[in-house]
Amino acid sequence: MKQTLPGPQFLPVGGTIRFAVGSAAGPRSNAWSVIGGKRADDVYLGARDIMGLEKVSLHVSGRWRRAWTAAGAKEQCLPHGTDRVMNRWDVPQSIAEGWLHAATVRIPASSVQPGLGAEKPPRKGVISFWDVGPGQREVRFEIVLADPAAPSLNAGNITEAVGRNELPGGGCIWVIAGEYLVADRREMQVDRLRRQARERWIEHMGFGHFALQPNPTGAAWGFSNDDGRPVVIDLGDIRAAHTAA
Questions:
Q1: Are 234 and 91 in contact (CB under 8 A)?
Q2: Among candidates 158, 129, 178, which has minimal Cα distance to 8?
Q3: At 6, which helix (H) or strand (E)?
Q4: Does the predicted model carry a pTM greater than 0.85?
Q5: Residue 91, beta-bridge partner list
Q6: What Cα–Cα distance (Å) separates residue 4 from each residue in 23, 76, 108, 115?
Q7: How far apart are alpha carbons 122 and 196 in whole angstroms?
Q8: What distances in angstroms separate CA 28 from CA 55, 75, 128, one per listed residue?
Q9: For 12-48, how does the pLDDT look when each residue is reduced to its tens digit (9 = 90+)?
Q10: Dist. CA 233–CA 222, nearest whole Å
Q11: CB neighbours of 41 closer than 8 A, spacing ≥ 6?
């Protein structure tokens, strides 16, 4: 695994760390954003293209959740007054003094697709693009939160820094990346998740709506059995399975 562009991002309060697998102009995954709060130590995570519709919110108050935004609830035709929160969970236990492993984004090599088109550059900041080896591999992006007085943490030699984002209270967000081989059953599971995402989309919005999408992509959300942190899998193109199940 290597970073193709542009090097680790070191950002001030209120910054956004963006990352994807592939290249800006060639085959790629969805781009993902990790946003630090401007006035409080809140952290937001989501796919860049749809953060206006749904996102993960890690509030300093301890309210950690994934929810539709008001715009997303309207697009999903949720009845007025419906709870927009899809998942709530407890803050995970610290992995070391002053350190929290907050979330994981997994991007399989099979989710890197040529049909997504060139990624639109952000108006401010950059997107880190990472390559992934051929075959059944994936890049895992780990979102880790550090308190102001947190000591140094050795993440090991299999990881690389995507970036660091300062928080108003003096702590920071770290995003680190590592490449891993995945077993056959794991790749088959990802294909099942793609089919399920496609079926849910068609069931809820109709086949006509799905067929009109030029690049229908999806993501699967779950929680780690180790510590309960949210884990999201970028499914890439969900129009068809990518491997034989």
A1: no
A2: 129
A3: none
A4: yes
A5: none
A6: 7, 36, 17, 20
A7: 31
A8: 21, 26, 12
A9: 999 999 999 998 888 999 999 999 999 999 999 999 9
A10: 9
A11: 60, 167, 168, 169, 171
